[in-house]
Amino acid sequence: MLLGAGALVGASPAYAAPSDLCAQVGYNAGFRGEGLVTAVAVALAESSCDPTATNVQNNTPPSTDRGLWQINSYWHREVDDNCAFDPQCNANAAFRISSEGANWQPWSTYNAGAHLRHMGEARAAVDRLGHHEPGPAPLVYPAESGRVVSARSADGRLEVFAAGADGVHHAWQVGVNGGWSDWENLGGPGGAELAIGPNADGRLEMFAINGDVLQHRYQLSPSGAWSGWENFGGGGKDIAVGANGDGRLEVFASGPVGVFHKYQNAPNSGWSQWESAGGGPANSRIEMEKSADGRLEVFAINGDVFQHQYQTAVSGGWSAWEDFGGGGRDLTVDHNQDGRLEVFASGPSGVFHKYQTDRASWSGWEPTGGPADAQVSSERSPDGRVEVFAINGSVAQHLWQTGVNAPYGQWDSFGGGGTEVTAATNADGRIEVFGTSRAGVYHKWQTGMSTWSEWAWLNNSSGPAVN
């Protein structure tokens, strides 16, 4: 359910073939191809395709999930009850909130994989509908890289990795949206930069690079145990990973002679050799994001220059590097609900912002204020607004869009200083932020639209010091 705790139990379908209703209104709303099949499967997991279904259990904050796609009354107040309980209006809202079927992150059943058991029934409903127009599958957006990284396992639980001087440390949620395990020390490269991404079969794969070595490890089964460390190449400065439209992972790493990349030859399979990415800034910080049409884009910044390159076709080759601005300290990239990309970069004068004005053009750089020379991260709130987090040695601050696809407000205090920050989303859509310091790893999470917990250790243990 949208911002709820899980699948609705005991919904009573009002139609003899409830999945047919979801297929019809989903098609009318604009879902196509595999995107329509996924939309019907999500609705089956959410409401059994009952347009009168409601749920109030385990919703934080207290709220009601409504209708076919269980649109939440708190996180989507713009959808009133008349719309939420009207099948077509509910489908139209789901199409908009899901970025036209590209992003199902706001639905907890999708995040936890509960929709997968309904895919056969959903596909049969789409087949009965008789429409087989091609359409995009949901996009898989890259996770933020850095000295602390987090991503959800296939069952919806967040996993987090933090880079200490003595290697990489790991903790995980013991239940979906729940508490945390103790930290475990995995060894591996010390003082590393990390990246994490999902294979096409749902297994997470994690990469760690320092000046001497690059290694990786991966889940042996979705949400399962992890392999040991394996060599992945020589040392470098930073690393990022993203999934191609066809499911193959692609890894970019920077070093003293520019940026290189390596990619899976087939989904869940072996890897190519390292290849030059055609230049790029030396010893740069790298982040990846995905355009609305599914092409990966790479952004790289060092103290002197900021450059950008992008795939010229989905799962295809790459453009030449293009100038993207002056140098800086760190960067983060996210996407609006309408698919346009948003880039934030920090430097000695604070945090600056640049965004797509359409799917092919960019604004100029605009100052936002914020902490000087900060580490920055971003994530999307359950209602689709981009939120930005920045931390330096003295202060942590927070900035967010005032509405979906809208301008930003003012920076607000988010706590004391630290060394690194990253943001991820729980299976129910709430943002969880991890901040590091020389004392260890803290986290802070949304308790409502604009309310947050206090900073706390994971499971009352500090984890590694991150310098």
TrEMBL record:
Stored InterPro entries: Lysozyme-like_dom_sf (IPR023346), PLL-like_beta-prop (IPR058502), SLT_3 (IPR043992)
Region Disordered, annotated ranges: 362-381
Transglycosylase SLT domain ranges (all copies): 23-109
Keyword Signal listed: yes
Pfam family of the protein (one): DUF8189
Signal peptide as annotated in the record: 1-16
Domain PLL-like beta propeller: 144-460
Keywords: Signal
Gene3D superfamilies given in the database record: 1.10.530.10, Fucose-specific lectin (2.120.10.70)
Protein name (record): Transglycosylase SLT domain-containing protein
